[in-house]
Batch of 3 targets.
Target 1
Amino acid sequence: MKKKLNAYLLAGLIITGALLLLTLIGAFHTPHDPNAMDSLAKFQRPGAGHVFGTDNFGRDIFSRVLKGSGTTLAIALATVAIGAVFGTLVGALTGYFGGIVDDALMRLNDALTAFPSILLALLVISLVGPGKYNVVLALGLVFIPSFARVTRTAFASLRDVNYITSARLMGASNLRILAVHMLPNTMRVLLPAITIGFNNAVLAEASMSFLGIGVTPPDASLGYMLSEAQSMFARAPWYALCTGGVIALLVFGAGLIGEGLQKMDREVA
Amino acid sequence: MLEIRDLHVKFHNRDREAVAGISLTIADGEIMGLVGESGSGKSVTAMSIAGLLPRKQCDLSGDILLDGEDLLHAPRSALRQIHGRRIGVVFQEPMSAMDPLMRVGEQVGEVLRIHTKLTPAQRKQKVLEVLASVELPDPEGVYNKYPHELSGGMLQRAMIAAAIVIHPSLLLLDEPTTALDVTIQAQILELLKKLNAEKGISMLFISHNLNVVRKLCRRVAVMQRGLLVEEGDTDQVFFHPRHPYTKRLIEAIPTRHGKETV
């Protein structure tokens, strides 16, 4: 299996890598204090001093976007991590053992999938309150079913493959079969699912913050900033455009990576 | 060493019994051939010996004794020990029989990892020895390769190595040469003969290819529709078949003159 980077993967890695790098730098250093107000510099257009311009308080939008994308990324990654880990766990149990565990968990899964994810997240938020950790919790829970479904199929299709049969014959424990033989072989579906999940998480967090059920000030995420920008769109269109553009780039980059991974898998197979 | 007594296997979703009462014995160091057309029950017989039948989806009755130990009715925990240590299995399709993401050497040594307390170094030593004994060139190189880097014939040798690394007393070979081309087939058969002679491993060789069976096995059993229709010395069965089905099978072997079958 010689891995050859394809154009999708390469472009995705470059875009996502650049954004990650900027965000990482932004966590330690921003050109301006993201929360410093400057009444003399309200609504400045993008230019040399302020790359993305300033908002109604004269805050540097570029600096705020750097901070905000940090929050967004952290929430998205944590969400996907929760979804992927628990989803894979559920998928492995149901796909490998089948039977009544499978039926019970998968029907529950169907029921959860029937609700729009934002609605479910809203339900969790209304129980635990807003704030970035609760957003992670809510979205993480909401993301488990989709990962469970994808991995369940992968595990179930591996169950009767010859090398699994022979591992069982050798007397390998179920844990060993699942962890050593099956899990690595499910990566080909899990990795693209993770990139898609990451995209959905970015969008879900943005939507929730936009609706005011996401992060709370002083934390700022991209979605939260977008909802701020909306109210002054006529006065400062660059605010919404720059913030929305970064969200779009994030999603685009991760989408390319996912597409590239699947393409690579098809070429190998 | 292996004794099957009146084995019945019936899957819940089928009307007919897959195996309808067969009895068979394999002596120490013997290579027994099991032939029959697809669906005749030969693979199901092998799978019930190996304990690979889904117990919840079929009814099993009769006895399978390996050196006097009951394989059919023993609890799962005991079976894991017996199956892993005493029975090796080689499947038809070598390409799918190995985990594509694990190095060949590790897979060959896996059964040692599970059933022995050897150190990693000792294990590797054993694996290299067994890879050499199945006549794989450059055992060290093969050890570190992934399955897709080996040819079908080499993989099948590696599978045989994995099946015998723990010195099992019985080797189940489920059409091990069917997926290979003829020259490789002949080499694998030679290898099996050698292993049988040198290590005294008993073998149950399942095939629908009578010529292959004739080259390898001293005794042969013929199955049809879940029943054992004929059993005996290979030469006896081939030159003086008693059952009409056996006769038809033998007539179906293509000959040099190409007059029998299409």
Target 2
Amino acid sequence: MMNCQQATRLLSDAQESELSLKNRATLKFHVMMCSGCRNFAEQMGTLREIAREYVKGSDAQGSSNPANFSDGERE
Amino acid sequence: MLKFATIQLRDEALAEDAVQEALIGALKNAGSFNRRSALKTWVFAILKNKITDILRKGQRLVEAGRPYQDDEEDGLETLFDTKGFWQVDERPLSWSQPMESVKTDHFWRVFDTCLNGLPESQARLFMMREFLELESAEICETLNITTSNLHVMLYRARLRLRECLENRWFSEGEKP
């Protein structure tokens, strides 16, 4: 069976390009059995979403300019 | 922004120029923005383009072959046992409603801390890929590194980043 180190590596690589059929199959099997890697898989997508949000709101955080226009970006 | 530019360009003066130009470019058209957040997004977009341009033109800034060694000393191997399975206390937990977090300033401070905790080359590649949204192939070409080199560095960055976020944020319970 594929181990978690190999599985997480593939889950990261899958963010870059499509995996081979064989890799996808063994990965799917591993992830079904392993809650840690299942969570890891979900978090790969989350990290990417967080990065998008980071760029969107870049350095908006922490600035408390009283002349704020209404800022609906993170709502 | 400056920090971001500096890490990407590895040159403070160059980074300052890029940020300044981006700001000037944005201010010229500031009248057309009625939302501050939209303006910021836009400045950042300009900055991204500038950095990307500079990186594309300035390939020689990076000495080929030197900077992106796989760093085996970063302790990530200890996340797994000798057979390569998660150590019991390192096994990733489920994050509840992660995208709710991005609404809070506190989360972003934690995120910055975690990002700053990455080895510089990992942080740089992660930001190129995820913030500048460059494709893998383009990053490899620009920096003259191999795909497998890039992928292993991104893997390490993600392993470390998710661990840090989990320890410092998601397992602490979501802060108000």
Target 3
Amino acid sequence: MADRSEYDAFVAAAWQPLLRTAYLLTRDWAVAEDLVQTALMKAWLAWSRLGNEREAYVRKIIVNVHVSWWRRRWRQVEVTTGSPPDRTQAADDMGRADERELVWQALGRLPARQRAVVVLRFFEDMTEAQTAETLGCSVGTVKSQTSKALAKLRIDDSFASTFVRRG
Amino acid sequence: MPINRRDLHDLLEERSRPAVERPIPWESLRTRVRGARRRRFTAVTAVTAGAVAGFAAVAVVASGSLLNLRGPDEDGHIAASVAGQIPAQFQEADGTVYRRVATATLDAPRKKSVTFDVEMRGKPLAILADCPTESMFMMPHVTVKVTGVSKVFTLSPAPSLSAGCQSNRPVDVMPLPAGTRRATFTVEAPKGFENVAPHERLERWRFGVYEWTPPATMKAASPPAEPPAAFGGRPPEFNLITKKSDTWPAAREVTITVPNTGRPLAFEAYCGGDIADRLSTEVRVNGRLIKGLLDCPAAPANQGGAYTDLGGPKPRSQKTVTIQVRLVAKIPEYRQRPGTLTVAVYEGPR
């Protein structure tokens, strides 16, 4: 049988970093917690096969289940009968905080796959290859999705070389 | 002026920081783990109860391993649909029996597709995949051809194995023409399959094609799961105002009418029982068909919500809003499988 105490220790250690990732993907704490629990439940069912890649495995489930949920939601939310959401913001007199808020809002409007690429590349500090592994797509797809996402977020790509990796 | 990547990193770091203050929901997590294990072995329990064989040799079950029971099948095995296995026969909770009629392996690095024939006996078909990944970007594509028929058939209700991989359940094949005796299946590896990292490369996909038979006597449907009381942030933006459930197949639609208070509305429709994710829904709002057929998802507690936003405030002249959700079974045998349909309506902030 799978070792329950080992699993509990893993959950205790990995919960917060996983929840951070899930929140950045979903932008809703309740949905993020639901997503992490779903992934941890699946991890328990496969626990004996996971080896040392447990957190990576769970993170992979989180990202892919999120994209799956989002696709279902996108299909269902696309038809509305009322006014479109107010997304216009005054651009003048914009301070740094406003700029960050606008980027945060723009991040929320990205399609799930592009948002996932941004979170994995620029929060998790994954390489393009690691991001491709996590999403189950090619490195070329990660590059193109990153480029599209950064363009929408108005991130200056030339700062790449000054970006400092964590830990 | 655009911000740089460092700023982006700091922004993500800052916005996700409240996670450190949120306690681990141990109780909820343990309940879900127990529930998942119970669901996984439900089929086995049902088969055990119905077995007429003189003995049942039960293997010790480790997570993900196959539970074998002696039973009436011709090769002596009846098994649960356990992750990573393509059992000869198994039974779902509603009593429907799945009997394997073909297996296939897609040796992905060497071959990009595999084609095989299945003899048919007039029963609906479904395909169960031993999924090495749940990534929806890496799902093989399944098509089915029938000699003399130009139409190419695929999976139902969505043409993807993704839902089956996530739930470890068979995915239905679209109904084939009446009288079909032989169907030719083709499973193709997804585009970009060979570009993943070496340790991620999937060497083998295994598939089982099953014919399924609903129980002669239909069981009563289990009570529907409760919808979430609210959704959309903290505090929630949308709160439940009303809900209604009915039982399939006796009832095939649920209609709810709510007063137009001027607030935004949203609703969620979901199914209970083994019909979940297998039947389609047709939705009308104030009589107008607002979308094509969609699959009816399982209860939100199992899969996360899929709320349909009905947009902002409605015109004052519109006194009520009526939401009508109808279940559609493309495969007639689903009329012998019990389930529930629930529609929950939510109201947002003014």
